[in-house]
Write a structure and sequence with these properties.
16 helices, disordered C terminus, about 20% strand, CBS-domain, 2 domains, about 425 residues, six-stranded mixed sheet, elongated, Rossmann fold, alpha/beta, four-stranded antiparallel sheet
Length: about 425
Protein backbone atom coordinates (compact mmCIF):
# COMPACT_ATOMS: atom_id res chain seq x y z
CA UNK A 1 0.00 0.00 0.00
CA UNK A 2 1.41 3.42 -0.93
CA UNK A 3 1.57 6.28 1.54
CA UNK A 4 -1.16 8.19 -0.29
CA UNK A 5 -3.47 5.18 -0.34
CA UNK A 6 -2.90 4.61 3.38
CA UNK A 7 -3.83 8.21 4.08
CA UNK A 8 -7.01 7.93 2.02
CA UNK A 9 -8.08 4.79 3.84
CA UNK A 10 -7.40 6.41 7.21
CA UNK A 11 -9.45 9.49 6.30
CA UNK A 12 -12.51 7.36 5.60
CA UNK A 13 -12.46 5.86 9.10
CA UNK A 14 -14.55 7.50 11.83
CA UNK A 15 -12.39 9.73 14.00
CA UNK A 16 -12.86 7.57 17.11
CA UNK A 17 -11.70 4.45 15.21
CA UNK A 18 -8.46 5.80 13.80
CA UNK A 19 -5.54 4.05 15.40
CA UNK A 20 -3.28 6.12 17.59
CA UNK A 21 -0.20 4.35 18.80
CA UNK A 22 0.44 6.20 22.08
CA UNK A 23 -0.51 9.34 23.97
CA UNK A 24 1.24 11.70 26.36
CA UNK A 25 -0.19 11.57 29.88
CA UNK A 26 0.24 14.29 32.49
CA UNK A 27 -0.98 14.41 36.08
CA UNK A 28 -1.14 18.05 37.20
CA UNK A 29 -1.24 18.43 41.00
CA UNK A 30 -4.03 15.87 41.14
CA UNK A 31 -5.57 15.23 44.57
CA UNK A 32 -8.22 12.93 46.00
CA UNK A 33 -9.85 13.47 49.40
CA UNK A 34 -12.59 11.02 50.29
CA UNK A 35 -15.62 12.31 52.23
CA UNK A 36 -15.17 11.99 55.97
CA UNK A 37 -11.38 11.68 55.71
CA UNK A 38 -9.00 14.32 57.04
CA UNK A 39 -5.98 13.21 55.00
CA UNK A 40 -6.00 12.91 51.21
CA UNK A 41 -5.48 9.56 49.47
CA UNK A 42 -3.58 11.42 46.73
CA UNK A 43 -1.89 14.71 47.52
CA UNK A 44 -0.95 17.09 44.68
CA UNK A 45 0.59 14.38 42.53
CA UNK A 46 2.34 15.66 39.42
CA UNK A 47 4.17 13.58 36.83
CA UNK A 48 4.36 13.20 33.06
CA UNK A 49 4.47 9.99 31.05
CA UNK A 50 5.85 10.39 27.55
CA UNK A 51 4.07 8.64 24.69
CA UNK A 52 5.21 5.02 24.39
CA UNK A 53 6.67 4.78 27.90
CA UNK A 54 5.80 2.45 30.76
CA UNK A 55 5.33 4.37 34.01
CA UNK A 56 5.22 2.13 37.08
CA UNK A 57 3.50 3.31 40.25
CA UNK A 58 5.00 1.57 43.26
CA UNK A 59 4.96 2.05 47.00
CA UNK A 60 3.85 0.52 50.30
CA UNK A 61 0.31 -0.72 50.85
CA UNK A 62 -2.12 2.16 51.19
CA UNK A 63 0.06 4.73 49.43
CA UNK A 64 -2.62 5.45 46.81
CA UNK A 65 -0.99 3.92 43.72
CA UNK A 66 -4.18 2.18 42.53
CA UNK A 67 -6.22 5.27 43.38
CA UNK A 68 -3.87 7.40 41.26
CA UNK A 69 -4.23 5.04 38.32
CA UNK A 70 -8.04 4.90 38.58
CA UNK A 71 -8.21 8.69 38.54
CA UNK A 72 -6.87 8.56 34.98
CA UNK A 73 -9.99 6.88 33.54
CA UNK A 74 -12.36 8.59 35.99
CA UNK A 75 -13.29 5.41 37.81
CA UNK A 76 -12.56 7.72 40.74
CA UNK A 77 -13.26 11.43 40.35
CA UNK A 78 -10.47 13.79 41.42
CA UNK A 79 -11.01 16.35 44.16
CA UNK A 80 -8.55 18.84 42.72
CA UNK A 81 -6.03 19.21 39.93
CA UNK A 82 -6.29 17.83 36.42
CA UNK A 83 -5.16 14.99 34.19
CA UNK A 84 -4.27 15.61 30.54
CA UNK A 85 -4.16 13.06 27.73
CA UNK A 86 -2.36 14.58 24.76
CA UNK A 87 -3.01 17.98 26.31
CA UNK A 88 -6.77 17.43 26.64
CA UNK A 89 -8.37 17.36 30.10
CA UNK A 90 -10.15 14.15 31.02
CA UNK A 91 -12.89 16.38 32.45
CA UNK A 92 -13.80 17.38 28.89
CA UNK A 93 -14.92 13.84 28.05
CA UNK A 94 -17.67 11.75 29.63
CA UNK A 95 -16.40 8.86 31.79
CA UNK A 96 -17.90 6.13 29.58
CA UNK A 97 -16.58 7.64 26.37
CA UNK A 98 -13.15 8.21 27.96
CA UNK A 99 -12.86 4.60 29.16
CA UNK A 100 -13.58 3.21 25.70
CA UNK A 101 -10.30 4.75 24.58
CA UNK A 102 -8.22 3.60 27.54
CA UNK A 103 -7.26 -0.07 27.93
CA UNK A 104 -7.59 -1.60 31.39
CA UNK A 105 -6.04 -4.85 32.66
CA UNK A 106 -6.28 -5.92 36.29
CA UNK A 107 -5.13 -8.67 38.63
CA UNK A 108 -7.04 -11.93 38.05
CA UNK A 109 -8.01 -10.49 34.64
CA UNK A 110 -11.63 -9.53 35.45
CA UNK A 111 -12.89 -11.59 32.50
CA UNK A 112 -16.64 -12.15 32.19
CA UNK A 113 -17.05 -15.86 33.04
CA UNK A 114 -20.28 -16.28 31.02
CA UNK A 115 -18.75 -14.92 27.79
CA UNK A 116 -16.46 -16.73 25.38
CA UNK A 117 -12.88 -15.58 24.97
CA UNK A 118 -13.79 -13.94 21.66
CA UNK A 119 -16.71 -12.08 23.25
CA UNK A 120 -14.55 -10.99 26.18
CA UNK A 121 -11.89 -9.55 23.89
CA UNK A 122 -14.44 -7.80 21.67
CA UNK A 123 -16.31 -6.04 24.50
CA UNK A 124 -15.06 -2.51 23.72
CA UNK A 125 -15.07 -2.84 19.90
CA UNK A 126 -18.74 -3.85 20.10
CA UNK A 127 -19.47 -0.75 22.21
CA UNK A 128 -17.70 1.34 19.58
CA UNK A 129 -19.93 -0.11 16.86
CA UNK A 130 -17.37 -2.10 14.91
CA UNK A 131 -18.83 -4.50 12.36
CA UNK A 132 -18.60 -8.27 12.92
CA UNK A 133 -15.97 -8.89 10.26
CA UNK A 134 -13.66 -6.29 11.74
CA UNK A 135 -14.23 -7.60 15.27
CA UNK A 136 -13.48 -11.20 14.26
CA UNK A 137 -10.29 -10.16 12.51
CA UNK A 138 -9.20 -8.13 15.55
CA UNK A 139 -9.87 -11.01 17.96
CA UNK A 140 -7.74 -13.38 15.85
CA UNK A 141 -5.00 -10.75 15.53
CA UNK A 142 -4.84 -10.19 19.28
CA UNK A 143 -4.88 -13.87 20.20
CA UNK A 144 -1.93 -14.39 17.89
CA UNK A 145 -0.23 -11.32 19.38
CA UNK A 146 -0.44 -12.77 22.91
CA UNK A 147 0.72 -16.19 21.66
CA UNK A 148 -2.60 -18.02 21.96
CA UNK A 149 -4.06 -20.22 19.23
CA UNK A 150 -7.14 -18.45 17.87
CA UNK A 151 -8.84 -21.60 16.57
CA UNK A 152 -8.44 -23.28 19.96
CA UNK A 153 -9.23 -20.32 22.20
CA UNK A 154 -11.89 -18.25 20.46
CA UNK A 155 -14.95 -20.26 21.61
CA UNK A 156 -13.69 -21.35 25.03
CA UNK A 157 -14.70 -19.79 28.35
CA UNK A 158 -12.37 -18.22 30.97
CA UNK A 159 -12.91 -21.11 33.39
CA UNK A 160 -11.44 -23.50 30.83
CA UNK A 161 -8.12 -21.60 30.70
CA UNK A 162 -5.10 -21.62 32.98
CA UNK A 163 -4.30 -18.53 35.03
CA UNK A 164 -1.53 -17.52 32.64
CA UNK A 165 -3.81 -17.94 29.62
CA UNK A 166 -6.52 -15.85 31.29
CA UNK A 167 -3.95 -13.14 31.97
CA UNK A 168 -2.99 -13.05 28.29
CA UNK A 169 -6.64 -12.79 27.31
CA UNK A 170 -7.00 -9.92 29.79
CA UNK A 171 -4.17 -8.07 28.05
CA UNK A 172 -5.71 -8.82 24.64
CA UNK A 173 -9.05 -7.39 25.81
CA UNK A 174 -7.33 -4.23 27.07
CA UNK A 175 -5.72 -3.80 23.64
CA UNK A 176 -8.85 -4.63 21.63
CA UNK A 177 -9.69 -1.11 20.43
CA UNK A 178 -5.99 -0.27 20.05
CA UNK A 179 -6.07 2.41 22.77
CA UNK A 180 -3.20 4.90 23.00
CA UNK A 181 -3.15 4.51 26.81
CA UNK A 182 -3.21 1.30 28.85
CA UNK A 183 -3.77 1.00 32.62
CA UNK A 184 -2.54 -2.17 34.35
CA UNK A 185 -3.31 -2.82 38.03
CA UNK A 186 -1.00 -5.59 39.33
CA UNK A 187 -1.79 -7.63 36.20
CA UNK A 188 0.66 -10.43 37.04
CA UNK A 189 0.29 -10.36 40.82
CA UNK A 190 -1.80 -13.54 41.08
CA UNK A 191 0.58 -15.78 39.15
CA UNK A 192 3.25 -18.13 40.45
CA UNK A 193 6.86 -16.90 40.04
CA UNK A 194 7.59 -18.90 36.89
CA UNK A 195 4.42 -17.85 35.07
CA UNK A 196 4.81 -14.31 36.33
CA UNK A 197 8.27 -13.96 34.83
CA UNK A 198 7.07 -15.52 31.58
CA UNK A 199 4.15 -13.08 31.38
CA UNK A 200 6.39 -10.13 32.18
CA UNK A 201 8.78 -11.10 29.39
CA UNK A 202 5.91 -11.66 26.98
CA UNK A 203 4.40 -8.29 27.79
CA UNK A 204 7.72 -6.51 27.31
CA UNK A 205 7.97 -8.25 23.93
CA UNK A 206 4.50 -6.92 23.03
CA UNK A 207 5.39 -3.44 24.22
CA UNK A 208 8.44 -3.54 21.96
CA UNK A 209 6.05 -3.97 19.04
CA UNK A 210 3.15 -1.76 20.13
CA UNK A 211 4.84 1.07 22.07
CA UNK A 212 1.74 2.02 24.04
CA UNK A 213 1.71 4.51 26.89
CA UNK A 214 1.25 2.39 30.00
CA UNK A 215 0.57 3.12 33.66
CA UNK A 216 1.46 -0.02 35.60
CA UNK A 217 0.72 -0.53 39.30
CA UNK A 218 2.72 -3.01 41.39
CA UNK A 219 3.81 -3.45 45.00
CA UNK A 220 6.97 -5.29 43.87
CA UNK A 221 10.04 -3.08 43.38
CA UNK A 222 11.81 -5.80 41.37
CA UNK A 223 8.88 -5.92 38.94
CA UNK A 224 8.88 -2.13 38.76
CA UNK A 225 12.57 -2.07 37.88
CA UNK A 226 12.10 -4.72 35.22
CA UNK A 227 8.98 -3.29 33.60
CA UNK A 228 9.32 0.47 33.90
CA UNK A 229 10.87 3.14 31.72
CA UNK A 230 10.10 5.48 34.61
CA UNK A 231 9.13 4.62 38.19
CA UNK A 232 7.02 6.77 40.53
CA UNK A 233 7.61 5.85 44.18
CA UNK A 234 4.69 6.96 46.33
CA UNK A 235 4.62 7.52 50.09
CA UNK A 236 1.65 7.17 52.40
CA UNK A 237 -0.95 9.79 51.57
CA UNK A 238 -0.24 9.63 47.85
CA UNK A 239 2.80 11.87 47.99
CA UNK A 240 5.45 11.47 45.28
CA UNK A 241 8.79 10.51 46.80
CA UNK A 242 10.71 10.16 43.54
CA UNK A 243 10.00 9.88 39.81
CA UNK A 244 12.96 8.55 37.88
CA UNK A 245 14.30 5.91 35.52
CA UNK A 246 15.17 2.55 37.11
CA UNK A 247 18.86 3.36 36.76
CA UNK A 248 18.57 6.70 38.53
CA UNK A 249 16.33 5.25 41.23
CA UNK A 250 18.85 2.53 42.05
CA UNK A 251 21.92 4.74 42.02
CA UNK A 252 20.53 8.02 43.36
CA UNK A 253 17.54 7.43 45.68
CA UNK A 254 16.03 10.78 46.61
CA UNK A 255 15.80 10.16 50.36
CA UNK A 256 15.94 7.55 53.11
CA UNK A 257 12.38 6.40 52.36
CA UNK A 258 13.20 5.60 48.73
CA UNK A 259 16.52 4.05 49.71
CA UNK A 260 14.82 1.73 52.19
CA UNK A 261 11.99 0.89 49.81
CA UNK A 262 14.32 0.01 46.94
CA UNK A 263 16.33 -2.15 49.32
CA UNK A 264 19.89 -2.53 50.53
CA UNK A 265 20.70 -4.69 47.50
CA UNK A 266 19.94 -1.91 45.02
CA UNK A 267 23.44 -2.19 43.53
CA UNK A 268 22.74 -5.82 42.67
CA UNK A 269 19.36 -4.85 41.21
CA UNK A 270 21.26 -2.79 38.63
CA UNK A 271 22.45 -6.06 37.15
CA UNK A 272 18.90 -6.68 35.92
CA UNK A 273 19.12 -3.54 33.76
CA UNK A 274 22.30 -4.42 31.90
CA UNK A 275 23.09 -7.05 29.28
CA UNK A 276 26.47 -8.69 28.91
CA UNK A 277 26.93 -7.17 25.44
CA UNK A 278 26.77 -3.65 26.89
CA UNK A 279 29.89 -3.82 29.06
CA UNK A 280 33.54 -4.25 28.22
CA UNK A 281 34.66 -7.86 28.36
CA UNK A 282 38.11 -9.20 29.02
CA UNK A 283 40.23 -10.02 26.02
CA UNK A 284 41.69 -13.51 25.76
CA UNK A 285 44.37 -15.06 23.55
CA UNK A 286 42.68 -17.38 21.06
CA UNK A 287 44.36 -20.52 19.77
CA UNK A 288 43.60 -23.39 17.42
CA UNK A 289 45.14 -26.82 17.40
CA UNK A 290 48.19 -26.85 15.07
CA UNK A 291 48.64 -23.08 15.16
CA UNK A 292 52.21 -21.81 15.68
CA UNK A 293 52.80 -21.54 19.43
CA UNK A 294 54.92 -18.44 18.92
CA UNK A 295 51.95 -16.64 17.34
CA UNK A 296 49.72 -17.58 20.26
CA UNK A 297 52.25 -16.45 22.87
CA UNK A 298 52.43 -13.10 21.11
CA UNK A 299 48.68 -12.70 21.62
CA UNK A 300 49.21 -12.70 25.41
CA UNK A 301 50.49 -9.11 25.10
CA UNK A 302 46.94 -7.94 24.29
CA UNK A 303 45.14 -10.33 26.63
CA UNK A 304 43.65 -9.86 30.07
CA UNK A 305 44.36 -13.50 30.97
CA UNK A 306 47.77 -15.23 31.16
CA UNK A 307 46.59 -18.31 29.24
CA UNK A 308 44.77 -19.01 25.98
CA UNK A 309 41.42 -20.47 25.04
CA UNK A 310 41.32 -23.27 22.47
CA UNK A 311 38.75 -22.75 19.69
CA UNK A 312 37.47 -24.85 16.81
CA UNK A 313 37.24 -23.58 13.22
CA UNK A 314 33.96 -21.78 14.00
CA UNK A 315 35.60 -20.04 17.00
CA UNK A 316 33.58 -22.10 19.48
CA UNK A 317 35.32 -22.78 22.82
CA UNK A 318 36.91 -26.19 23.40
CA UNK A 319 38.73 -25.50 26.67
CA UNK A 320 41.36 -23.46 28.53
CA UNK A 321 44.82 -24.38 27.22
CA UNK A 322 47.50 -25.68 29.57
CA UNK A 323 50.98 -24.13 29.63
CA UNK A 324 52.37 -27.25 27.99
CA UNK A 325 50.03 -26.85 25.01
CA UNK A 326 51.93 -23.78 23.75
CA UNK A 327 55.52 -24.76 24.70
CA UNK A 328 56.24 -26.72 21.56
CA UNK A 329 56.38 -25.48 17.99
CA UNK A 330 52.66 -26.06 17.41
CA UNK A 331 49.63 -25.77 19.72
CA UNK A 332 48.45 -29.14 20.97
CA UNK A 333 45.00 -30.15 22.15
CA UNK A 334 46.07 -30.12 25.79
CA UNK A 335 43.43 -28.35 27.89
CA UNK A 336 43.55 -28.05 31.64
CA UNK A 337 39.77 -27.60 31.99
CA UNK A 338 36.66 -27.04 29.89
CA UNK A 339 35.80 -23.40 29.10
CA UNK A 340 32.46 -23.49 30.88
CA UNK A 341 29.90 -22.24 31.64
CA UNK A 342 29.03 -20.43 28.42
CA UNK A 343 27.57 -16.92 28.78
CA UNK A 344 25.48 -15.39 25.97
CA UNK A 345 25.94 -11.82 24.83
CA UNK A 346 22.23 -11.20 25.35
CA UNK A 347 22.16 -12.55 28.91
CA UNK A 348 21.40 -9.97 31.57
CA UNK A 349 24.24 -9.49 34.03
CA UNK A 350 22.18 -10.82 36.93
CA UNK A 351 21.76 -14.19 35.20
CA UNK A 352 25.38 -14.21 34.05
CA UNK A 353 26.56 -13.61 37.63
CA UNK A 354 24.37 -16.48 38.81
CA UNK A 355 25.99 -18.75 36.21
CA UNK A 356 29.50 -17.87 37.40
CA UNK A 357 28.64 -18.34 41.07
CA UNK A 358 26.70 -21.59 40.62
CA UNK A 359 29.63 -23.07 38.68
CA UNK A 360 32.20 -21.83 41.20
CA UNK A 361 34.27 -19.92 38.64
CA UNK A 362 35.52 -16.35 38.36
CA UNK A 363 35.20 -15.99 34.61
CA UNK A 364 33.71 -17.66 31.54
CA UNK A 365 33.68 -17.20 27.75
CA UNK A 366 30.92 -15.06 26.26
CA UNK A 367 29.40 -16.36 23.02
CA UNK A 368 27.53 -14.60 20.23
CA UNK A 369 24.42 -15.95 18.51
CA UNK A 370 26.54 -18.36 16.43
CA UNK A 371 28.34 -19.74 19.45
CA UNK A 372 31.60 -17.93 18.67
CA UNK A 373 33.69 -16.41 21.47
CA UNK A 374 33.28 -12.63 21.86
CA UNK A 375 35.33 -12.20 25.03
CA UNK A 376 35.42 -13.25 28.67
CA UNK A 377 33.13 -12.14 31.48
CA UNK A 378 34.62 -12.13 34.98
CA UNK A 379 33.49 -11.43 38.53
CA UNK A 380 35.95 -8.55 38.53
CA UNK A 381 34.27 -6.94 35.51
CA UNK A 382 30.87 -7.25 37.20
CA UNK A 383 32.27 -5.85 40.46
CA UNK A 384 33.75 -2.91 38.59
CA UNK A 385 30.36 -2.28 36.98
CA UNK A 386 28.61 -2.29 40.35
CA UNK A 387 31.03 0.32 41.71
CA UNK A 388 30.81 2.55 38.64
CA UNK A 389 28.53 5.55 38.27
CA UNK A 390 26.05 4.84 35.47
CA UNK A 391 25.01 7.26 32.77
CA UNK A 392 21.60 7.19 31.14
CA UNK A 393 21.16 5.66 27.71
CA UNK A 394 18.38 6.52 25.28
CA UNK A 395 15.86 4.22 26.95
CA UNK A 396 16.73 5.16 30.51
CA UNK A 397 16.56 1.47 31.43
CA UNK A 398 20.00 0.65 30.10
CA UNK A 399 23.32 1.75 31.56
CA UNK A 400 26.71 2.43 30.08
CA UNK A 401 30.00 2.51 31.92
CA UNK A 402 31.62 5.85 32.63
CA UNK A 403 35.05 4.18 32.60
CA UNK A 404 35.15 1.69 29.72
CA UNK A 405 38.78 0.67 30.15
CA UNK A 406 39.26 -3.12 30.32
CA UNK A 407 40.38 -4.57 33.62
CA UNK A 408 43.96 -5.89 33.47
CA UNK A 409 44.28 -9.58 34.28
CA UNK A 410 46.40 -10.62 37.21
CA UNK A 411 49.65 -12.12 36.00
CA UNK A 412 49.48 -15.09 38.37
CA UNK A 413 45.91 -16.14 37.45
CA UNK A 414 45.37 -19.70 36.33
CA UNK A 415 42.21 -21.72 35.92
CA UNK A 416 43.16 -23.73 39.03
CA UNK A 417 43.45 -20.83 41.44
CA UNK A 418 40.38 -19.04 40.08
CA UNK A 419 38.01 -21.94 40.36
CA UNK A 420 38.35 -23.34 36.83
Amino acid sequence: MTASNASTTDDRQPADERRQQAADLELCEISKLYPGQSDPAIDKLSLKVEAGEICVLVGPSGCGKTTAMRLVNRMIEPTDGDILIDGESIRDRGPAELRRHIGYAIQRTGLFPHLTIADNISTVPRLLGWDKQRIDARVDELLELVSLDADDMRDRYPGQLSGGQQQRVGVARALAADPPLLLMDEPFGADDPINRERLQNEFLRLQGQLRKTIVFVTHDIDEAIKMGDRIAVLKKGGKLAQYASPAELLTNPADKFVEDFVGADRSLKRLALQRVRDIDLWKVAEAREGERSEDVRRKFEDSDLPFAILLDEQRRPLGWLSDEAVRGERVTNDTRSPATPHIDLDDILRDALAELLSNGVQYAPVLDSRGAVSGVLSLEVIGRFLHSAPTESRTGAELVMDDPEPIPGEGDETPENTGK
